[in-house]
Amino acid sequence: MNENILELKNLFDASIAKVLDASALDEIRVSYLGKNGSVTGLLKNMGALSPDERKTYGKDVNDLKNYISGAIDEKLIYLNEQALKKELEAMPEFDVSAPVDTDRGSYHPITLVQRQCENVFRTMGFTIEDYSEIVTDYECFEALNIPKFHPARDMQDTYYLENGQLLKSHTSAAQNAIYKKYKKALVEEGKPIRAIFPGRCFRNENTDACHENTFFQMEGVMVDKNISISNLIFFMKTMLSAVFEKDINVRLRPGFFPFVEPGFELDISCLICGGEGCPSCKHSGWLELCPCGMIHPNVLREGGIDPEEYTGFAFGLGLTRLAMMKYGVKDIRDLNGGSLANLAQFTEDK
Ligand code: DAH
């Protein structure tokens, strides 16, 4: 090996042995490998050599360069380890062998699916609305074409306050307020109403694996000129395919809800068997997921919107049911149970 190269290698070995911290190591890196560093300097001597000598000289310089950069990397690892060791020694109370605290909180499965739905609808121009859990009889029923003593009220017995207000039995209770909030922009600026409103709902239920007195829904409405059932099908299909991360088939069956006409039950192709038929879908290939329909003219009128000019669709997605399907939760009571052992399994989905 050329004398200059050997000399530089020895010099490097001696200086790196003395280095005690990362910044001194960095200085060495620059002084050897930098643009004006000694290794780069060696190449300047090449001109004086014969072509044959140049070949081996070039290779030797290159080897030295690799050797130096490898040695610096190794030393850096060593120095970092030493620094960490020193830091730990200065804190005797810090026990690196202590078990990790596994009882950290995590996002609730319902929060996870709610956020997924919100993200999809946000990208389609929907606003996300917050609404009170305590509502009036007018908001929850009358404005939705469910007059006093209508039998449809029987399905939605809920908790009443002494002042006559009630805990909302469905997110549809926000519809009237949403129409009133956005009707001016609809009529004067031609801006369609596109809103979703997730929320907690309450019903007087005997609880079992499928029924809870407290659950979550996500209501959605879209109102504009010429809105039709095909718009409804498109939005539902897009949203559900995004949530389940696969192409979801949907079908509509007639269903009665006083605030929509026509009203539907929207089914999705079974997530377990893909439509072939299995015990989960009672061998039908379909799972009932989301009631929906075209907003009843009385409901639009009550919200201050002329049903002769505007039409719209509404849907009431069961977020609790969606979370159970997506995460395979068998008992609805687990979702309100507050057991971290059950709920923390979904953390990685954040
Ligand atoms: N609010 C209804 C319930 O909880 C669900 C529903 C049905 C909502 C049809 C809608 C709809 O928006 O169009 O039983």
Account of the protein in words:
With 350 residues, the protein is α+β, with helices and mostly antiparallel strands. It has two domains: 3-90; 109-343, BirA Bifunctional Protein, domain 2, CATH 3.30.930.10. It has twelve helices and nine strands. It has a seven-stranded mixed β-sheet with strand order 1-4-5-9-8-7-6, sandwiched between helices. Strands 2-3 form a two-stranded antiparallel ribbon. Strand 6 (250-254) and strand 7 form a beta hairpin. It is elongated and about 105 Å long. The mean pLDDT is 91. The structure holds 3,4-dihydroxyphenylalanine (DAH). 3,4-dihydroxyphenylalanine is lined by residues 170, 172, 219, 257, 260, 263, 291-293, 314-316. 3,4-dihydroxyphenylalanine (DAH) is lined by residues 170, 172, 219, 257, 260, 263, 291-293, 314-316.
Average per-residue pLDDT, rounded, comes to: 91
Biggest β-sheet description = 7 strands, mixed
Instruction: Quickly give the structural class.
Output: alpha+beta
The proportion of strand residues reads 15-25%
Instruction: Summarize the amount of helix as a percent range.
Output: 40-55%
